[in-house]
């Protein structure tokens, strides 16, 4: 089995431009999932079909085959999903390594990435002076994701430069959740740039998706503020506990300020897009169902009346 071991970086400056002559690439994806991608590429006058497995650290399985350029053209026009990736690739030999600098065009205009393939994940790499931040584990920069969420459409390009992450695992989990959130909900009206989290409305309910470090892993908490300012009575407490016993997802809680929340938690390393979507929608729908019931009996305000 062929294995691709690769590191990816942002590029700064223009010193690299004089080191190679670029070749125009066009590529698209027949399928893209966390477990596998199937890519069609035309590089110069040659066609390629490439199948890649899931990433494990810096490496993943890769199988690549030459195909007639006519077949590649037809696949790109009829089988590939989303806009095509258009870029020019510059191959730059430095020492024993070949650096590949990709200058993107079209929907990804302005993005320049450098990749280097290694013999092992532990191989030491001397970085050229024009290499910037490493983004090997940042899923936004995967070509397959750039077809879904092009660079020119990124609403929050600065988020990881000022975001405060406590662990690398938390950061990686956050980046994956960001992609899933954009894919499932198109856009979300809130993203706190100094704290890993997202938010969106459904009806009168507001949900936040937060990513926290947890031992060697991370946890994804889906949390909705249901009611603020309700009268906390024994009857209300009994009502919430009874509903908790009947719920399949999460449960109600009351914080130090007597705000009523509904939350559900997922382990980051085992979460998949379907589980995250179920968590978000279940918490949103449940909060939306119960906020009016609580307010009618015990007063207070809904999230819709509070969150700006």
UniProtKB/TrEMBL annotation:
PANTHER family, sorted: SLR0698 PROTEIN
Gene3D superfamilies hit by this protein: 3.30.1460.10, Hypothetical Protein Pfu-838710-001 (2.40.320.10)
Domain called CYTH: residue spans: 2-148
Pfam families: CYTH, TY-Chap1
SUPFAM superfamilies listed in its UniProt record: CYTH-like phosphatases, Type III secretory system chaperone-like
Protein name: Adenylate cyclase (Function located in N-terminal part)
């Amino acid at each position: 089995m062929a294995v691709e071991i690769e590191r990816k970086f942002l590029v700064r400056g223009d010193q690299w431009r004089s080191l190679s002559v670029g070749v125009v690439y066009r590529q698209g994806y027949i399928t893209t999932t966390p477990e596998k991608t199937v890519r069609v590429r035309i590089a110069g006058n040659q066609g390629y079909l490439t199948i890649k497995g899931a990433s494990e650290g810096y490496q993943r399985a890769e199988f690549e085959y030459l195909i007639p350029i006519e077949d590649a053209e037809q696949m790109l026009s009829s089988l590939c999903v989303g806009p095509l990736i258009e870029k020019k690739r510059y191959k730059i030999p430095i020492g024993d390594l070949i650096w590949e600098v990709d200058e993107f065009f079209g929907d990804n205009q302005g993005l320049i990435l450098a990749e280097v393939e290694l013999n092992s994940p532990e191989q030491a790499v001397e970085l050229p002076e024009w290499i910037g931040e490493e983004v090997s584990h940042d899923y936004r920069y995967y070509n397959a994701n750039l077809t879904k969420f092009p660079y020119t459409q990124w609403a929050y390009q600065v988020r990881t430069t000022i975001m405060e992450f406590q662990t690398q695992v938390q950061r990686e989990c956050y980046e994956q959740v960001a992609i899933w959130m954009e894919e499932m909900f198109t856009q979300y009206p809130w993203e706190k740039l100094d704290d890993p989290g997202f938010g969106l409305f459904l009806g009168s309910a507001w949900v936040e998706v937060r990513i926290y470090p947890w031992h060697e892993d991370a946890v994804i908490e889906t949390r909705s503020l249901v009611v603020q300012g309700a009268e906390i009575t024994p009857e209300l407490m009994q009502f919430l506990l009874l509903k908790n016993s009947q719920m399949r997802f999460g449960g109600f809680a009351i914080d130090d300020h007597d705000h009523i929340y509904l939350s559900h938690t997922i382990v980051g390393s085992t979460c998949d897009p379907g589980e995250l979507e179920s968590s978000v929608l279940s918490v949103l729908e449940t909060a939306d169902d119960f906020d009016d019931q609580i307010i009618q009996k015990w007063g207070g305000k809904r999230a819709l009346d509070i969150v700006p």
